Amino acid sequence: MKHTIAVLVNDQPGVLQRVSGLFGRRGFNIESITVGQSEEVGLSRMVIVTLGDQSTLEQIEKQLYKLIDVIKVVDLGSRPMVARELALIKVKSEPAERPEIMGVIETFRASVVDIGSTSLLVQAVGDTQKIDAMIELLKPYGIKELSRTGVTAMIRGNG
Amino acid sequence: MSAQIPEVRSTEELREKWNKPEVISGSEILLRSLVLEGVDTVFGYPGGAVLYIYDALHGFTDFKHILTRHEQGAIHAADGYARASGKAGVCIATSGPGATNLVTGIATAFMDSVPLVVITGNVFSSLIGTDAFQEADITGITMPITKHSYLVRDVEDLPRVIHEAFHIANTGRKGPVLVDIPKDVSAAKTLFTPVTTVNLRGYNPRTVPNKLQLDKLVRAIAVAERPIIIAGGGVIYSGAHEAMFEFVKKTEIPITTTLLGLGCFPSAEDLWMGMPGMHGTYTANNAIQQCDLLINIGARFDDRVTGKLDGFAPKAKIVHIDIDPAEIGKNVSPDIPIVGDVKTVLEMLNPEVGRATKADAWRKTIAQWKQDQPLRYKDSETELKPQWVIEMINETTKGEAIVTTDVGQHQMWAAQYYKFNKPRSWITSGGLGTMGFGFPSAIGAQMAFPERLVVSINGDGGMQMCSQELAICAINNIPVKIVVINNQVLGMVRQWQNLIYEKRYSYTDLGGSPDFVKLAEAYGVKGLRATNKAEANAAWQEALETPGPVLVEFVVPKDENVYPMVTQGSTIDNMLMGDE
Question: Into how many domains does chain A fold?
Fold first, then answer.
């Protein structure tokens, strides 16, 4: 089962290493991990997507709390959340194919951010499934380069 | 030679002396901060990256510094000091190889929740990351085996970091904290203002348990027909032995104490069932498998205790009391989880609980098992049996000594045949099983308690892993009584080869071990040898009567096995009981 957790941490050198190292040595899976500034100066928020059953998730939370630099752990999946990732996709495109590819891109509300003589650089934002689906449709044209950020997420509403 | 072990100093006096703001170097800040934390002994080894610190230590007399012969000796000694005294042990090493030599000792302390503050030097800040001479990323290397670690980048942070390090090491679930100090930071000067407060948002150990869970436990005890207690190292670390005694006396629930829990409950008591697990007693292991209520107090359901998890305590309602929430449900999922400090939990429980009245038949069964299946071995009149040696040490010291052990068969025999009645009198590497731990940890324990008898029981294998520390016993006149149970082989590994690997004794015969008596004497420590009971009695008596350190080698047969034994992958009631 896939879980998305947000971890509020002290913005200290080595914190990402502490967190990712914990996952590694305890045999927890990391599907994606993103980290950046939070709303509070001195604190960063990590969003980690992980696979495992409920008891693994419970252990992950408890083990994370043992790290001194971890302030708060929230299981985002337990409540309605918005989860997004960004993908940059360089797709092969001869001038003749461009309109066809543009059609795919528009359907997914993605945008073209650069055009080369034989390629397009596409930017897509959305949940993981949407980006997966778009990549599937672009594959036949030939994907030259793909870079995904991993998921960042937040709980809906005021909470 | 006179004893050079320091007298206990008044921290209050030193506090006044050092508590005034003054412009001093990072090195002096470190030393003053240690004094203000109540440190009286530091174990260490100098080197290039800690030269400023050692320069500040020159002529510094407010705590004692013991120069070991290897960083591994220093950290195991600091560990022994911590386990014996309950205070954080402190050790200092230089960068690179000095720091990496500490790794085994840090991991040992981490596995057994021992509070340590480990100070390492590092290369100049400007050189960090350049593969400079004697550089190692020690905070990175030790991240998985420390409770927390610091790389101090600014001398201004040093007073706060040292204070936090002691706070973290010695609260909640205890553990080692590493403080890495680059050379320029130990040299830099600043206005020192002692730090006395801690502000760590992410660190709030929960000591007071949930009352509802306690009530559930009280009710469970009242209806249990076959209750037992498994008590572990947490009882000792939280200082809960008296509360534990009261709890057992009131409820009359039979108790088994894990390897690290030995001494948290007096072994002479009828309700004590011995140690559980791989080399546990028949009574303890059967009681676990047949109980209907299992109350785990400050133990972590280690695989050496549980055996095959699937079949562990199959009929029991499980209660788990632990300060570390992550231990709850890690291996065994409890019916009643109780997160809190063991002492606080027991002190809250004691007024509420009464005698487990439905368990009379169970108590009788357990008494019968204890009588029918005691620990036993086949004694010999011609050879020295290792179990007999432990019994002799137990009788002559009346169970009053601080006993440290190395790892292996002698460790299990010491756990089985030495009768512990007090907490903090048993020091052994349980979680990591670190060979080389036994002897230097005894030095640390003796530094904590200069007046007590400290006996270090070792095998011939482990003794050779830190034997160089004989020098510091001789030089500082540290009166540890060092026992070497010499069976000429790596006994525990050989036992597995004997029982599981069809007697293929692959590289467990040590063959050319040194003459331990001469080895001791080469370092200036008295050495004695015994090969039969008469010699053993005489040599041991002489050791006890000799002031200062003595090494006694007991030559024992190599084919003696530790029983009972549960092989890996079995449930713990499947015990090999030995020949007799």
Answer: 2
